[in-house]
Design goal:
single chain, 284 residues, alpha+beta, Sulfite Oxidase, Chain A, domain 2, 2 domains, five-stranded mixed beta sheet, five-stranded antiparallel beta sheet, 4 helices, 15% helix, 25% strand
Length: 284
C-alpha cells in the first residue's frame, strides 16, 4: 500500500532554538500520523499498532490536552467573575479605597487617627455580634450587624473629631441615625439619658434630646471604607460637637435611662459629663 502524501509541522519551542520538523505520513483510510509511530495495515482494516514508547507519548499528549481544556473551562485568568454575593453576572466590587475629598472638603486619611482606647483595639467577631437597645424602652431590640444595616436608612456626613490630646481628623462618615434606632425600640416618657456601652467595657452617656434633636450617626464606614477594628468596627458614634472621648467605639449596647447624673469611664475620672467642644473638657 503506497504512501499518498506527506506533511511537515513545527511545534512551539523556546526562543533562540531551532525547532525540529516533525514528519507526518498519510496512509489511505487513516489520519496524519507522526512518522515515528509504526503503522500496520491489516486486511481491510485501519488498525494502528504502536510501540510502547509511542503509546506513552500519545497518552501524555492526551493528558496535557485534558488539563488545558479544564483550565480553559474553569479558570478565570485571575479575573473575578460574578458579584460578591454570587448573584448576577456582573463583576464583583473591589475593596473600597479611602477618599481624601468629599464635595470640595479635604478629608483626613484614616491613618491620622491615634490609638488611645482603654484596652487597645477590639477584635469583634461579627458572627456573634449583637447590638442591644434596652432600658426605658417599649421593647428590647437585639440585632445582628446585618440587621442594623438592612433595617435602617443610611446617611453620610463630614464631621471633625477633636481629641483632648490636641489632634483632630475630618472624616466622611456613613451610618444610621441613632434616633431611628431609639424610635424602633420605643422611648419611654421617663427616659432622659442614653448610655452607650462598648465591647471593651467603655461607657459614656448623652442627654436624650441631643440624640433625638440632631442627626447623630452611628457609623459603620469612614472615608468610603468599612471601619477598621482600631476605629470601632462594627459601630462607632459620631458625636459631633463633642470632645473625642465621647465618640465611643465598638458599640454593643444602647440603654435609655432616667439618670442624667450617670457618668461614664472618663467622666468618672474628672472629664466633663457633657463633653461640649466649646467648654473645657476637664470640668464638671
Amino acid at each position: 500500500m503506497g504512501v499518498k502524501s506527506h506533511r511537515t509541522d513545527h511545534f512551539l519551542v523556546p526562543p533562540g532554538t531551532t525547532p525540529a520538523p516533525v514528519r507526518y505520513t498519510r496512509i489511505p483510510g487513516t489520519f496524519f500520523i507522526p512518522a515515528g509511530m509504526r503503522c500496520l495495515m491489516r486486511s481491510g482494516t485501519s488498525s494502528l499498532v504502536m510501540n510502547t514508547t509511542s503509546k506513552l507519548a500519545v497518552g501524555l499528549v492526551l493528558v496535557l490536552i485534558a488539563v488545558v481544556a479544564l483550565i480553559m473551562v474553569f479558570g478565570t485568568g485571575g479575573r473575578t467573575v460574578g458579584t460578591a454575593s454570587g448573584a448576577g453576572t456582573g463583576p464583583a466590587p473591589l475593596a473600597a479605597v479611602g477618599v481624601r475629598e468629599f464635595e470640595g472638603k479635604k478629608l483626613s486619611p484614616v491613618s491620622d487617627f491615634r490609638e488611645n482606647s482603654i484596652r487597645g483595639p477590639q477584635q469583634v467577631n461579627i458572627t456573634d455580634y449583637r447590638l442591644t437597645i434596652t432600658g426605658l424602652t417599649n421593647r428590647t431590640i437585639v440585632s445582628t450587624y446585618d440587621e442594623v444595616l438592612s433595617q435602617h436608612p443610611h446617611y453620610t456626613k463630614v464631621v471633625t473629631l477633636f481629641c483632648v490630646e490636641g489632634w483632630d481628623v475630618t472624616i466622611l462618615w456613613e451610618g444610621v441615625l441613632v434616633r431611628d434606632l431609639l424610635s424602633d425600640a420605643g422611648i419611654d416618657p421617663r427616659a432622659n439619658t442614653v448610655i452607650f456601652t462598648a465591647h471593651d467595657g467603655y461607657t459614656t452617656s448623652f442627654p436624650l434630646a441631643y440624640l433625638t434633636g440632631k442627626d447623630i450617626i452611628m457609623a459603620y464606614r469612614m472615608n468610603n471604607i468599612t471601619l477598621p477594628a482600631e476605629q470601632g468596627y462594627p459601630f462607632a458614634l459620631v458625636a459631633e460637637d463633642k470632645w473625642g472621648y465621647k465618640w465611643i467605639k465598638w458599640i454593643e449596647k444602647i440603654e435609655l435611662s432616667d439618670n442624667p447624673a450617670y457618668r461614664g469611664y472618663w467622666e468618672q475620672r474628672g472629664y466633663s459629663n457633657t463633653g461640649d467642644l466649646d467648654k473645657n473638657f476637664f470640668s464638671r
